Amino acid sequence: MQKIVDELKSIVREKAAEIDRNNDMGDVLDAVKESGILGLIIPEEYGGLGGGYYDACVVAEELAKVSAGVAHSIIVHSMAADAVRLYGSEEQKEIFFPKLLKSIGTIAITEGKGGSDVAGSVSLKAEKQGDAYTLSGSKTLITNGMYADVFIVVGRTGEGPKGLTAFIAEKSEGIKATRIDLAGMRGSGLASLQFDNVEVHESNVLVKEGAGLKVALGTLAPNRLPFSAIGLGIAERCLEIAVERAKKRKAFGGTLSDLQAVQFMLADVAVEIEALRRTLYDAARNMSDPGYEGAVAKILSARVAKKAADVAVEVFGGHGLLRGSKAERAYRDAKTIEFAEGATEVMKLLVARKLLA
Ligand SMILES: Cc1cc2nc3c(=O)[nH]c(=O)nc-3n(C[C@H](O)[C@H](O)[C@H](O)COP(=O)(O)OP(=O)(O)OC[C@H]3O[C@@H](n4cnc5c(N)ncnc54)[C@H](O)[C@@H]3O)c2cc1C
Fold this sequence. Notes:
Layout: H1 2-22, H2 28-35, H3 53-64, H4 68-87, H5 90-102, E1 105-108, H6 118-121, E2 125-129, E3 132-142, E4 150-156, E5 164-170, E6 175-179, E7 191-201, H7 212-248, E8 250-251, E9 254-255, H8 260-285, H9 290-316, H10 326-337, H11 344-356
Parallel strand pairs: 1-4
Antiparallel strand pairs: 2-3, 3-7, 4-5, 6-7, 8-9
Helix pairs in contact: 1-2, 3-4, 3-7, 4-5, 4-7, 7-8, 7-9, 7-10, 8-9, 9-10, 9-11
Bound molecules: flavin-adenine dinucleotide (FAD).
Family: Belongs to the acyl-CoA dehydrogenase family.
Cofactor: FAD
Protein name: Acyl-CoA dehydrogenase family protein
């Protein structure tokens, strides 16, 4: 797996600025598909790499050091594969793992009415007619929406939290994707999706009708660890460029790195990165409560990434805000960590729930 990541990282490094500028992976998408990384979380008996959350963290961290958008695309793909691994029937695994080894997957939960309150906001209609469901409605802020062939879609089949159902849908004319021009983590194929009478056979329901919330939340929780590793990679990238700049930039008869105030800023970031790395990898090795551990990691990841990006811009001064510069890109990427895969406040609710139980 390390070889795949190293090779992919060197390809992505060359194109990272272009991917950010164009908000599109371009030919890097082919490199991703051909690299074997799509099998990251798919069990070996189905032809995958058989990785777990620890491996996914390593992949996310390493790729986010060069492009958070590419890292996020791969992690959301793996999350779609993980939904099949955790909740799919044997027949669904046999059908969809081979597809997910070659083509991109995504998981589409969020709608325009609000992403945090999943049970209250999902209204994409899934109506049963005979042995199939017809899906109509829209989703937004969907990573890989532009690239995906396989969609894990949460739709409404009834009232309340038990009225949600998770489907595996395949790319068809009825699914239209519109690119979203987000500030950070660009190139992840973020899109709004319109579903117009998309037919999904009942055999492509995950678990059973009404289990959609369980599938969505149960898949998101452990996958917040790899997602948090993207924040770690961004923070490490920020520290690296800030140290490099501080050592080179002349000021007051020396370099910025001679100034204790600058040294303290860099040291603070290094300490926070250390704390995040240890928390994250410890949780990935010994996960016992994915809801809690995923939420803790995600809160810390957003905090550390934002702090590191702030310091990077600070060290670069006005140059740190030049459009497309490394510090400016990291600044946009870091803020994005806060919302994708669950907003910080919602993560705090999960932590508080455990404290107060
Ligand atoms: C880059 C990116 C990629 C994404 N990829 C996907 C994807 O692949 N699939 C998918 O389904 N979704 C995806 N999302 C959507 C993401 O899950 C939502 O943005 C997130 O859940 C928050 O929902 P919202 O943006 O609608 O904000 P809202 O739910 O409208 O919340 C707005 C603000 O209110 C706060 N808030 C909400 N509820 C509470 C509360 N109870 N207490 C205190 N504060 C609260 C939030 O913290 C937030 O700051 C992505 C988002 C981003 C930014």
